[in-house]
Design goal:
alpha/beta; two-stranded parallel sheet; 12% strand; globular; disordered N terminus
Length: 214
């Protein structure tokens, strides 16, 4: 991320937080805490490694991608998802308190957690490093268009940007726009197009053949 840039604040859905600010060196502190807990026998390193591997390589964003693909393929499910994200996501076997916000041609949603790094692990897997960074957490509210531009996403002036602030009690999932050229694709094929970044709102889902990124 580049240094803070001032800019007009877009629509910001704010929520109260009761979390302390993230330390300036969270990775170092987490590693030190892990080592201390292992040394005291409070945590089994093998079990911890297995848990991390599960979220990083097996869960990842696949669960969220399945939710998005189902919404694209099933209009009734999409309506339930937007009306009650928690209940609709539970239909697929995932437990997460969530509000789902839909991207359209005129509205683009961006998810952030300004005072900590609340994140739907069971839906999106491990959070990316940039999501937890101070720069992203602050600038997403101050200059969302600038942040999106740095991710390679340029939005027209006629597109409203809405920033959603996650908390420990409520997380957000972006329902991306279904890309062109996906007519007739199966849910599994659609899910293969959906990326974590698109479900956080820093990217769009690309049409088949365009390639994807995280």
């Amino acid at each position: 991320m580049v240094p803070d840039v001032t800019g007009a604040q877009e629509h910001h859905q704010d929520h109260d937080h009761d979390h302390q600010a993230v330390p300036s060196d969270p990775a170092l502190r987490a590693k030190a805490l892990e080592s201390l807990m292992v040394a005291k026998g409070l945590v089994d390193r093998a079990a911890l490694d297995a848990l991390i591997d599960n979220y990083e390589h097996k869960v990842g964003p696949r669960n969220g991608a399945r939710v998005v693909a189902r919404a694209w393929a099933d209009r009734a499910y999409k309506q339930r998802l937007l009306a009650d994200g928690t209940a609709a996501i539970a239909e697929l076997g995932y437990g997460e308190t969530m509000l789902v916000v839909e991207n359209t041609a005129k509205v683009h949603n961006l998810v952030v957690c300004t005072l900590c790094s609340c994140y739907p692990w069971s839906i999106l897997g491990l959070p990316p490093v940039w999501y937890k960074s101070t720069a992203y957490r602050s600038r997403s509210v101050i200059d969302p268009r600038g942040v999106l531009r740095e991710f390679g996403l340029e939005l027209g002036n006629d597109v409203e940007v809405r920033v959603w602030d996650s908390t420990a009690d409520l997380r957000y999932l972006v329902l991306p726009e279904r890309p062109a050229g996906t007519e007739g694709m199966s849910e599994a094929e659609l899910a293969g197009l959906v990326t974590r970044d698109a479900m956080l709102g820093v990217a769009k889902v690309r049409s088949p053949g365009e390639g994807t990124h995280a």
